[in-house]
Amino acid sequence: MGEYKTVDEAFKIAAQDRDFYNTSGGGVTISGGEPLLQWEFVRDFFKKCKDAGFHTALDTTAYCPWENMEQVLKHTDLILFDVKHMDPVKHEEKIGVSNELILENLDKASSMTKIWLRIPLIPGFNDSESNMHKTAELASRTRAERISLLPYHEWGKDKYSSLGKQYDYD
């Protein structure tokens, strides 16, 4: 269970690692859930981080209005961008929403900041040669600096069960 923090409280915690950021070249990463559901907090927090000289990274699916994301990206050095599937129909079947907004936001974001693509490889869903080719085209088009293929795991299986949902990837 998380804790509620103001921007100032969260920044005070992050600033405790200032020496580490300075010596390692690292910085602050916001992830979730989906951090852009709280885009105003992330924007204000990242602004404070940038004012202090910290590198900022956002781990997101980017399923949000572009106007919100754009405000956050003004203070973002790097996006860790989750890409589940390139086909909008297949994406909607399994994820619950089309990927059209997500891909539009990625295209726009690529002109504002560095992009790293992160692809969770899900057997029978997005591990086809065709999907990988389309993902490679996306990486090229958006000038992604890195592509990470994340191995499949079953960490969410128990959560699905507790919610009374079917887990499709046994």
From TrEMBL:
SUPFAM superfamilies: Radical SAM enzymes
Signal peptide: none
Keyword Aminoacyl-tRNA synthetase: no
Pfam families attached to this UniProt entry: Radical_SAM
Gene3D superfamilies: pyruvate-formate lyase- activating enzyme
Protein name from the UniProt record: Radical SAM core domain-containing protein
Keywords carried by this UniProt record: 4Fe-4S, Iron, Iron-sulfur, Metal-binding, S-adenosyl-L-methionine
Radical SAM core domain: residues covered: 1-170
Cofactor: [4Fe-4S] cluster
One Gene Ontology MF term: 4 iron, 4 sulfur cluster binding
Species of the source: marine sediment metagenome
InterPro entries in the cross-refs: Organic_radical-activating, rSAM, rSAM_sf
